[in-house]
Known about the structure:
Layout: E1 5-9, H1 33-43, E2 48-53, H2 55-69, E3 74-79, H3 101-107, E4 116-120, E5 123-124, H4 127-137, E6 146-153, E7 164-172, E8 175-187, E9 193-196, E10 202-205, E11 210-212, E12 216-218, H5 222-237, H6 247-257, E13 261-266, E14 272-273, H7 279-292
Amino acid sequence: xxxxxxxxxxxxxxxxxxxxxxxxxxxxxxxxxxxxxxxxxxxxxxxxxxxxxxxxxxxxxxxxxxxxxxxxxxxxxxxxxxxxxxxxxxxxxxxxxxxxxxxxxxxxxxxxxxxxxxxxxxxxxxxxxxxxxxxxxxxxxxxxxxxxxxxxxxxxxxxxxxxxxxxxxxxxxxxxxxxxxxxxxxxxxxxxxxxxxxxxxxxxxxxxxxxxxxxxxxxxxxxxxxxxxxxxxxxxxxxxxxxxxxxxxxxxxxxxxxxxxxxxxxxxxxxxxxxxxxxxxxxxxxxxxxxxxxxxxxxxxx
Length: 302
């Protein structure tokens, strides 16, 4: 297997958080959450990282990571912008909302030549999650017509401070069979959860469901499939100002229409991240504990 790449989706707007959460210092040396993801990826065997960013974040991210990553991992920066669409399409002037995670991955197509795993910049996945991603990429069943997911247990992914969006997965015999994006999920007492359906009604979940936190693994061949799906999406939705092109939808199409297999592995980690500004205090405390326990050094890049 070629050396894997880590693709970090770092172009988010942070509307619920109220700021640039992917660049909010939470570590003892001013590290961001994504510093820990890159650190964990390096020790799991990743050799390249590609940051998908907004234009205004390129200079500060390059400055932040410049010396820190030198000699440790190759870094590339790719701008995701609304006007990056295939030839023959034009983004409507009224479009304000980003195109979504599928578009973010599509934007990275020229920067990645081999297998890769993708993560969100504002989610803390933990070192075991990246170790599982490496195992997945090396699985004998992982090839040019397969992908993979490192899923989490739902009740290990919820915020104490409000509802979250999660991809609820169905898994059979070690393979993902379905993933449904639920945009409003809340924690309930006893480790259970509930989600709000499209009709406004609430439905209960056990809390044990395999859940996508956007830790996916793909071969480079996915870009051909992704390009076709992206064009289909635009043909049907380019004038819809709030429609987004999501990676879970891409994967569902691959496994249900294109006969791909999606290998499912489970992370033992408890997720934490910064969906809301009130989450920051929890993240600071968690990072402090992990540092005290020796999981991470006091200053990742010293």
